[in-house]
Structure formats: structure tokens, C-alpha cells
Amino acid sequence: MSKNNKNLVPFGKYEGQPLKVLLADKSYCAWLVGQASIRDQYPELCDLAFKEHGRDLKTPSHSRMQAEYMTEEVSLRLFYLVNPKIFNHDKEYYVHNINEYFADKMSIVKTVCERMNNRISKIKKMAIEISTISKNWELHRQKSFAVPVSPFKKYMDGREHEEYVFKNFAILIVNDPEEIYRNTIRDFELFYTFFEEFRSYLAESQFNQVSPCKTSFEKKFNDVTIEIKNHEEISPKFSSRVEKFFERALYRYPTCNNERINYPDFLLGEWRYVNPKKTNELYYVELKPSIGDDYHAVLNQISNRREMNETHIKQKTSQNVRYILVIGAYDGTGVSFENVKRIFKTEELDVVLEKDIDDVKLPKIERDFRISPFEIPALNEIFNILDSVKKTIRSANEFFEDSKNSAAGF
Hints:
Order of helices and strands: HHHHHHHEEHHEEHHEHEHEHH
Low-confidence stretches: none
Distance between the termini: 116 Å
CATH architecture of the largest domain: 3-Layer(aba) Sandwich
């Protein structure tokens, strides 16, 4: 390839020697193809080096870049440069979203609690009157009572009250006011426990704005693969009895219209906390110390790797996948760098300069933070409403206990 003999090396430490001697030295070939001036002056020689060792011939600069991109700091700066939105999931973000979730349940809680208080009040009134007439059934024909339907029950005919008719003492075995009351508050306790267990989950959990990067080197077909989890899922665990009580709302089993009509109103809400579909980012990064007017070859190389990834690697549905080309320098003369970036972008490929990554100033990243339930205003308001029913229940418990003691002669 010298001017006199194309089979001899034209320069460097192998000058005048057969080309096969140079090509046998892989490290020297790596250095050679990494020099922009040599690529411009001796493109045929560089092509021979690539043919001998493959297009993935690693230059010393390439190895340096790989080593640098194995670090957490550089990976995070790259993520922030390409997609800064993934850093939005800080503590304030979680508090806001959780508060919105509970605010959405506020109307249901208010309705349930209002109906609970009305039902308990009517049951107590019924118990007092039954206690009076049961002392002498002969003086009374029959007595009927309309009690509001439990908020945890719904009749197909749409009735809003249950009618209880008392004719004699035997009826108390079937329709004992205290038993009706106990069944009512049993359901409410499960309703209350849902919020209690959600609150405990928040108090005991730790969250991250972003989790530490998982970086792999030369994985499958890629220079560097970086994965970062940018959203901790809110996934409270409930006791089996609460899960059973809410299962139709939590899991949305397919139902026919008639079954759905029979759902109690409180189950029609969206009780399962909905997390974003995409919770982490997966970046396939191609590193090049420099590219020039041969950028189309690099574009084809990355496109081919993407095709191989899609064929041979199963991606998680929770992952947002991106392909990025990181270069040390652009030394092309035929097309401007901005136009090269636009060409790559049309193929959904990002091109980033090393110096732009170095210039990134990362925001403060919150790790392993906790969310106090007291930081969720809507949840606190819900417990204020629920606790008002708890107060009513304590009063009713005392009432029924006193009634038992009175009947027993205490």
C-alpha cells in the first residue's frame, strides 16, 4: 500500500514490511483505525484492518470509554441528558400521587360512613323499641322497622331499606337487632382495615427516586447495556380477609351486567393503585471515539444490532428501550454534526458527545426515603371520617352491653 508497492506498509513501525505483518498485530490495528488522519489518508488500509479483525475492533480510546461508562456517575449523567423526566420521581412526586389516589376515594368513604352512622342509629332505635314491647308481646300486635341497607350490600331490586317485622319473641332468634348490628360493623371493620394496612405499608416501605444502575459490558451484541429503575411501584399487601372483601374491585374479574348491577356502590371505585406502565429504562449504548463522513456505516451497525436484540432478547413490558451512540468527536466534513444527529433521530437513535455528558449537572437524587402517612393530607382526612364511625360504634357497643346487663339483672 506504499506508493511503490501496495502490499507493503507505507508508514509507522512496520513501514516497508508486508501488510500481513501489520494485520497480525491487533493492538496496532486498533490504534491505527482510531486515528482520524490515518482513516482519511489510508482508508483502504483501515478497511483491511476491519476485515481482518471485524468492525468491532476496539481502539484504546474505545476501551477507555467502555471503562468510564461502567461507572454509576457517568451512566446517570447520560440518562439525565437523554431523558431528564425519569428523575422527576422524587419524594414530592410520590406524595402527590398517593394523595391523589386517596382524594379520589374520599367521596366513597364519606358515603359509606354516612350510611353506616344512619344504619347504626336506626338499629339502636329498633333495639330500644323491641326491648320495650318484648316485655309484653300480648299488648302489641306487630311492629315493623325500616332500616337503611348496609353500604356493603346492594339488592337487585334497588331497595334502599330493609324491613324487619316483629310479631313475637321467636322472631328475635332470626332478626336479633344486636346480631344485625354486629354483622354491619364486621363489614365496616374490613373496610377500615384496608386503609389501615395501606397506611402501615407506607410507613414501613422505602422508596428511591432512581435505583442504582445495572451496567453490563459487551452483553450479547452491545458495547454497554445500562438499566435503571426510575419508579418504585406502590404495591401494598393486604391480609387475606381484606383481599377477599375487596377482590371484585381490586382484580376486576370479568362480569356480566347483572352481576355488576348487584355490586355495592363502594366496590365500583378503582381500589387497586395504578402504577405507570413503564418503570425502568434500558439503554443500549454504542461507543465510538470518533466518527466522520462514514456515519452511515455506524448507523447501519446499530440498526443491525437493534434488529438482533429484538430477535434474540426478550424485553420486559415495563422497560422503555433506547439506543444511544456516544462519540468522542465528530470529524466529518460533508455533513454537519447537527444534521447527522437528525438523521440518526429519524431512526430513533440518539447521538451524544462525550463533552456534553461531562457538562451535565445532576440534580440531587433521593435514595431510600420513607413516606410518612401524616404527609398524605387526603389519607389523614379519610381516617378522621372513619374514626367518627368508630366513635359511633364504641357508643353502640356500650349500648348493647348495657342492654345485656340490664336484661340479666345486673
